[in-house]
Amino acid sequence: MPLLPLGQTVLGAACMTAWGDFNDAAPLPDEGLNELPIAGQIALDRLPGAGQPMPAAVGSIAPDIEQIAAFLEVVFGYCDGLIPVRGFVDHGQGLDTKPHNIWVPADRHAAASLSAYATWAAREGSAVYVIPGTVAEQGQARAEHVLQMQTVVVDLDAGDIAAKLAHLVHHLGPPTLLVESGGRTAEGAAKLHAWWRLTEPAEGEDLARLCTLRGEIAEKVGGDLHFRSAHQPIRVPGTIHQKHGVQRRVTIREHRPRVEVELPDFAAAVAAMPTMPGLAAPTAAPGATRPGLDAVLTTPVREAAQDAWTRFQGASAAIGHFVRMVHEGRITGDEGWEAICQYNAACLRPAWPLDRLKTEADAIWALHVDRNGQPLLRAAAPPHSAIAAHTLGALLDDKSPMPDDLIGPRLLTPGGMLVLGGAPKVGKSDFLISLLVHAAAGAPFLRFTAPRPLRVFYLQAEIQYHYLRERLQQLRLDPAVVARARDTLVVTPKLRMLLDDQGVPLVAAAIRAAFPDAPPDIICIDPIRNLFDGGPAGEGENDNAAMMFFLQGRVEALRDQVAPEAGIILAHHTKKLSKQQVKDDPFLSLSGASALRGYYTSGAILFRPDEDQTERELHVELRNGPGLEPMLVDKIAGRWVEFDRRGERLVRQDIGRKLDAERLRKQDVILGILLDEAAEGRLYSTMQLAEKFENKVGLGSKHTIRERLSVLATKGFVKFRRDGTEFGLGVVRSRFGYLCVEGMTFGPEIETVDPQTGEVTTSARRVLPSHFKCPQSGNCLDVENPEVWVYPEGVLDDLTPEELGLTPHSSPKTTP
Fold first, then answer.
1. Using an 8 Å Cβ cutoff, are 265 and 172 in contact?
2. Can you tell me the mean pLDDT for 264-281?
3. Is the pTM of this model over 0.85?
4. With 139 labelled, which of 24, 558, 591, 653 sits at a CA distance of 20 to 30 A?
5. Cβ atoms 25, 228 nearer than 8 A
């Protein structure tokens, strides 16, 4: 239920205009154009044209035409109209002259014209500024006259310039142009202008949006707030800075001509960028009428300054209100944070990300404490009941049904905790995702079952959004399972946070937002390491006290806030132990403090016993039920499956696998030889083939070849044909006959002529079997239908995948 009254009287837009109007740029000298003397204006036709010589500069530093040209390309390269150029005498020179203004067409001659003006200005002790937008006519230079702008600029002129620039680059990307304006801060750092070029000029409403962005960036990094105004001028690189008689060239430090941004994308990045730590929330302009608190807390506000105030202004006011209430002890910290989250969800369109909301709240809280002293924090309500205790008789007499397992059998019980451990890259997260999807669908997974579709919140801090969705889309799951789990499994992309005093309420709010109607059944945290908070001492996960603090003070606290009966699943890494140590006691491999093993209600370890094989072993220990036998699992065709361990070798496993591979190789070679030889017009009996190919292509002796042929005949890969007269051969009087395999053809194709039409066709002469070896008795029996290659009943069920279709001689086979 909302804590704030909705539907109260909202102030009209008219009374909000002054509060939201931040166009407080300082008035420029003699801004009234009608008062500017004619002598103070430089006639454009007096400047050198393209190809004409430039006037000589006066002073030790001359303007740089190349830098001027580069600047004009970035700031005006896509614009049409006139560039307002303004010349102001730099302070501290003892000069007192009027500004001198010109309007330069934004065309290919602009660099030459502006360079000539810069040379004249340097001689006169004037600095050269431009308004970074174009106007339609000469004499126009006010904000309402600006028609086009193609850049977003921020002026960093105070404080820690390097930190501010790093903050901008981290959140907005590197700028197209970075300019040293020539000035220095009190600490001696160079003042900077950062420019981002748009892909096309902004006009109309987009132009107003661009100016709002310039103001919001300046507010968040402590830049010059005058750039909220479209007509605010700025120095031109390549010209001379001459304050206090010290000459410095305004210099381009970095130029990235290919860096361009889309205005909507850049606006979204600015909205997501947090205010730099230590900066105060922006305040209204002097004399502005601030709206009532009720209006701020109940009025929806959209992005891109579409309303009477911005999302940033509204959020700052709301956060400040609730921070003050917490500081005065009228509500608890958790209640204050919940109210801030509710304002965010109800009024900001679209809502801010929770991590940005937390950053802004922390900054305003720190500023409020600094100004008003330590808070009067409200104590949490005492527990409603004492510690539960039961007599032996009561426990023996309680015959009520046991609660249903969340994931059975007893893998995860209500209020229980499952820890899933595994080495990096063993498939732990993939296995966990499959388990959670099936739990969310109420479907069985391997031996594990859920009684119904469960509500699952998966807090994961490893996989970024795009790779997370790729992994989920690669799962080969039953479409019915996916359909049931679409809305009951909620997954976070990679988080950069800790489960600390701020992180726990942040996650709790996200869980409540994901499941507003009913609490979740399972809360999964993957992995522990990326979210671990060891408490005030700051110890790591290897410290028992820190681990217990994290489990009780963070994980259990999170569960208590949102769903006391929910099951917890924690994904955790394992230590580097030998294979034998892991097999002896898999749960000793869990990374970190031993307190973890004593705390959970069930544990599972996934590890690969042989690095050369894909199979994994899953060991499970339960405190609330009997232990489970270890499972041998693997991911086949995108799905996790369990293997029957009864077919697993117990001794000499390595040599066994090599022998299996060698038998499969010989099988492929023998079948390939039979096909190739028949295609060249040669058929063989068993003995003749064995004798001819003895010790060739790695087949071994004739006895080895005969043994392999006997096995292949029993499995149905090889059959026989006694009558070879059709192929120019005799009738074999041996027990079996000529060897025959599926798809065999004899010699080259032959031509046949239709006697009625005269049509000539070619066809291969197929070698069809007449007899086969009985897999039970070993006797030679007649083939009923030579056209259909039939395998003995049940034989295909015992064949390996390689025997079923991975050999080169045939396509995958099925029993008819």
1. no
2. 83
3. no
4. 24
5. yes
